[in-house]
Specification:
With about 290 residues, the protein is an alpha+beta fold. It has a single domain, classed as Spore Coat Polysaccharide Biosynthesis Protein SpsA, Chain A, CATH 3.90.550.10. It is built from 12 helices and 9 strands. The chain has helices at about 25-35, 45-60, 90-95, 115-125, 165-170, 170-185, 185-190, 195-205, 230-235, 255-260, 270-275, 280-289; strands spanning about 70-75, 80, 100, 105, 155, 160-165, 210-215, 220, 225. β8 (about 220) and β9 (about 225) form a beta hairpin. The longest helix has 13 residues, at about 25-35.
């Protein structure tokens, strides 16, 4: 509960239904097929999940209730925060010129996004001037030496805990990007979710220093968790109550080691990087090759 003012609003029905350019019969057939292969396509038959993914990808930041705000913090039902948050994340974002932030990063199911990267490549080839200088594109690539022509390594930021600046999502660049993806129909014909869409946009169109990982905020949503590993800073003083060994960052399916490899300037990660076996980064590359 909170003593702060709370607002409630309705999502326009047109933003939670099929857009006119999507063939509903084709979408229904795809969903039935993905349901039959559910081990490889989580939520493959879930129509409402596709609608909400499209809303999160293209519309939430333009909802009338959101227009008077610059920053948002996505909070999902049933989550747990394991650490005391003794500062204002919005102030941190503004003072440090951060635009997008996350806690957990992981690989997406290939079967849910088979044509997403080709669609992204088409957009970038047509709009190369929109790529940010010092972007995080390498976070997305199997072979960074190939640039945008590389295959996608499936890494993305888990979007159910993200703090962001909605001015980025409202920008002309992101509007063009989302319109391009939306026209392709992959949200419905496959199962493109807002996590990969947000992550790819942030990695391509933001400078690397504009993206932040909340290393100091322990977080859990089934089935993954993030727990700070520095005992002296976070556990001996009672600030966090999680087990640092129960940490998805150390899982072979995590993309956190790859992010740290690309983002060594973020000092809050230094102790965790030093404590991890470098084979984690090797595991990531072995998995995606």
């Amino acid at each position: 509960m909170t003593r702060s003012q709370v607002f409630f609003g309705l999502i326009p029905p047109r933003q939670l239904s099929y857009p006119s350019h999507v063939d509903r019969r084709r979408a229904t057939r795809v969903q039935k097929t993905m349901d039959n292969d559910s081990q490889k396509s989580r939520h493959g038959d879930n129509q409402s999940r596709r609608h909400i993914s499209r809303f999160h990808s293209g519309f939430f930041f333009r909802h009338p209730l959101m227009l008077k705000f610059n920053y948002y913090w996505r909070v999902e039902p049933g989550i747990q925060y394991y650490c005391d948050v003794d500062y204002d994340p919005f102030v941190f974002m503004e003072e440090n010129k951060k635009v997008y932030s996350f806690s957990v990063s992981l690989m997406e199911y290939q079967s849910t996004i088979p044509s997403l990267w080709k669609t992204v490549q088409g957009f970038v080839r047509a709009n190369p001037d929109l790529l940010a200088a010092n972007s995080s594109i390498d976070f997305l690539l199997k072979d960074p030496s190939q640039g945008i022509e590389s295959d996608y390594n499936l890494c993305h930021f888990w979007s159910n805990f993200e703090v962001g600046d909605m001015r980025f999502w409202r920008s002309t660049t992101y509007a063009k990007f989302f319109a391009h993806l939306d026209r392709a129909g992959g949200i419905y014909y496959e199962r493109w979710a807002e996590g990969p869409i947000h992550s790819i946009a942030a990695a391509l169109f933001l400078r690397r220093e504009q993206i932040h990982q909340w290393d100091d905020i322990g977080y859990f949503q089934t089935p993954f968790s993030h727990c700070p590993s520095d005992y002296e800073r976070f556990h001996s003083n009672g600030k966090c109550f999680c087990d640092p060994f129960e940490n998805f960052d150390q899982d072979p399916y995590s993309c956190a080691p790859l992010w740290w490899e690309l983002d060594r300037s973020v000092t809050s990660h230094s102790s965790l990087i030093a404590g991890l076996n470098h084979s984690l980064y090797t595991n990531i590359n072995q998995f995606i090759m």
